[in-house]
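Minimal example, chain plus flavin-adenine dinucleotide.
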Amino acid sequence: MTQELKIQENVELAPFTTLGVGGPARLFVRVKYEAELIEAFRFAHERRMEVLVIGGGSNLVISDKGFDGIVIQVGMQGTYFSPASAEGYVELTAAAGEMWDDVVRDTVEGHLAGLECLSGIPGLVGGTPVQNVGAYGQEVSETIASVRCYDRHEGKIVDLSNEQCGFAYRSSIFNSSAAGRYVVTSVTYRLREGGEPKIIYPELIRELDAGKTGVTSPSVSDVREAVLRIRRKKSMVIDPDDPNSRSAGSFFKNPVVTEEVLNSVASVTPDPPFFRMPDGRVKVPAAWLIEQSGFHKGYTAGNVGISEKHSLAIINKGGATADEVIGLMTAISNAVKEKFGIDLHPEPVLVGF
Ligand SMILES: Cc1cc2nc3c(=O)[nH]c(=O)nc-3n(C[C@H](O)[C@H](O)[C@H](O)COP(=O)(O)OP(=O)(O)OC[C@H]3O[C@@H](n4cnc5c(N)ncnc54)[C@H](O)[C@@H]3O)c2cc1C
């Protein structure tokens, strides 16, 4: 089937990102069907053009030069809930272009457990397996059954099992070993009907504390509401009226280091916070390292700064350029490296730097 693609020229990309920086795309197309997606790749291939796939632009920093190729925005729509299995599992298949938080809300309203802690994360469904989104003790890899993709190498649609996706902390084959190869067109999540919500994260437990909310046995809806309350306090829910939410979320991954590196951090600043990982290494909060290195909440440098509510979020204070964002990122990374000898790695995808 040949699809008539609605390709636009010279489209500013900043409005397609939550951070609001980045120059224009030479060409831009939004695809709503797999056949259109395949057609868009054929179009690009014939013209030997670079392709950038985007979803909701909430994990992207695009350079001021923009993108000299074709940007494909994945816009497939639709969700399907299977009947519950005898074991009480419901499979939800959501198209890649659905708003992630709308999907989470629907699962919670349907009393399905598995995604409740991931409430309020911006972006689209197709972005969730890419960096294995996670928050408040839950990761999307815990419920993903399979991911349907367009395989650019083979030129065909494939279904990848959870194991084939190679999920780890903020990582999958989609952003590591097979980066650029697969375009996610839909994701199937396996959820528990009437299941218990996941409540292991200390901050979430405190928020749900019976004394505060009057809730003794929290439901998935109670957990969703609690997560949204916590996120709003940190400006981690996109809100046009909240300037601290004009970000790409957490800008740095929490470094995972050896016990030896942790001891060397402690020799510089006593009692660093850390979480022990199953493999024996420890995860040190990047926010703590950043604050100890002199970059505090509310720090400002020209048109960019650090959120007043969250020291991991670099924000666009209005009229920022991508160069300013990268300048602040570099200043923070250098300060942490100099003080603690630890390399911080950005969480958002940097395009064109
Ligand atoms: C305020 C705020 C809070 C956030 N909080 C969290 C959080 O708690 N936890 C967390 O993990 N993340 C968080 N994020 C980051 C971000 O929301 C997630 O990573 C989200 O899943 C990205 O989805 P997206 O559709 O916006 O992807 P985009 O930003 O458009 O793209 C990100 C990357 O994924 C690729 N991609 C996008 N769609 C597809 C597709 N269909 N197929 C293949 N590749 C694709 C792009 O090429 C790019 O490399 C936050 C961001 C913001 C702004």
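The pocket of flavin-adenine dinucleotide is lined by residues 18, 53-60, 74, 96, 121-124, 126-128, 130-131, 133-135, 174, 183-184, 236, 238, 245, 247-249, 349 (CB under 6 Å). The chain has three domains: 8-74, 79-233, 243-351.
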